[in-house]
C-alpha cells in the first residue's frame, strides 16, 4: 500500500477526499471564510494562489512525498480545508500530518479531531507506521494546543529552522505519536468525538 496514495476516508462529520483540481473553486470559498491567508504565522494559500497550491500538492503526490486530501464537512456538504501526509519516509514507516488548514467556521468544532482520527487510523492501522509527526510555528498557539489535545507529545523546538516569508526566523515545534501510544490516543479521540 502506497503512503502517497490518498484514499477516501469518512467519519461522522467529515469526508477526506483525495485532492483534485476540481476542488479549487470550493477551496477558494473555504479559504475566504476567515481570510486565512492573512495569518502571519502560517502559510495558507490566498484565493488567487489556490490553483497553484493544489497543483503543487498533486506534484508532490506524483513524486511520492505527499498524500493530499480536501476536507468536506458532512453537515453542509461543503469543502472546509485541506490536509496531507507529508515528509513521507515509507522505508522508515514514518510520516508527518501537516499543511492542514480549516475555514474559520470549521475551527473549534469536531472536524479537526475527526480528520486527525481518520488520518492517524490509516497511518497506524493500514500503513503500519511506527511514528507520526506534527510540526507547527512556535507562535501558532491554536495549532500547538490542538496537536497536544490529540494526544501527541512535544519532542522539541527547532529554533531558527526556517526563514519565514517576511525574512524572520521560524521556530518549529515538533510533536509525535508513536505506534506504542496509538491505542491510548485512539481511545481519547474516540471519547472526545463521542461527546461532541
From TrEMBL:
Record-level Gene Ontology MF annotations = acyltransferase activity, transferring groups other than amino-acyl groups
What region holds the N-acetyltransferase domain?
14-153
* Residue stretches spanning the membrane: none
The protein's matches in InterPro entries, at most eight in alphabetical order, are given as: Acyl_CoA_acyltransferase, GNAT_dom
What protein does this entry describe?
GNAT family N-acetyltransferase
Amino acid at each position: 500500500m502506497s503512503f502517497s496514495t490518498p484514499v477516501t476516508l469518512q467519519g461522522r462529520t467529515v469526508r477526506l477526499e483525495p485532492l483534485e483540481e476540481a476542488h479549487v473553486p470550493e477551496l477558494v470559498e473555504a479559504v475566504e471564510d476567515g481570510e486565512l491567508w492573512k495569518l502571519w504565522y502560517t502559510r495558507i494559500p490566498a484565493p488567487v494562489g489556490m490553483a497553484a497550491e493544489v497543483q503543487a500538492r498533486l506534484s508532490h503526490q506524483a513524486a511520492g512525498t505527499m498524500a493530499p486530501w480536501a476536507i468536506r464537512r458532512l453537515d453542509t456538504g461543503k469543502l472546509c480545508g485541506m490536509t496531507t501526509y507529508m515528509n513521507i519516509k515509507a522505508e522508515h514507516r514514518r510520516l508527518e500530518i501537516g499543511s492542514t488548514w480549516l475555514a474559520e467556521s470549521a475551527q473549534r468544532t469536531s472536524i479537526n479531531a475527526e480528520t486527525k482520527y481518520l488520518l492517524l487510523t490509516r497511518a497506524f492501522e493500514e500503513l503500519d507506521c511506527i511514528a507520526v509527526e506534527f510540526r507547527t510555528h512556535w507562535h501558532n498557539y491554536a495549532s500547538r494546543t490542538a496537536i497536544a489535545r490529540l494526544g501527541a507529545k512535544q519532542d522539541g523546538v527547532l529554533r531558527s529552522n526556517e526563514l519565514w516569508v517576511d525574512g524572520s526566523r521560524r521556530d518549529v515545534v515538533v510533536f509525535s505519536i508513536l505506534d506504542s501510544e496509538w491505542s491510548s490516543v485512539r481511545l481519547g479521540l474516540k471519547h472526545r468525538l463521542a461527546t461532541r
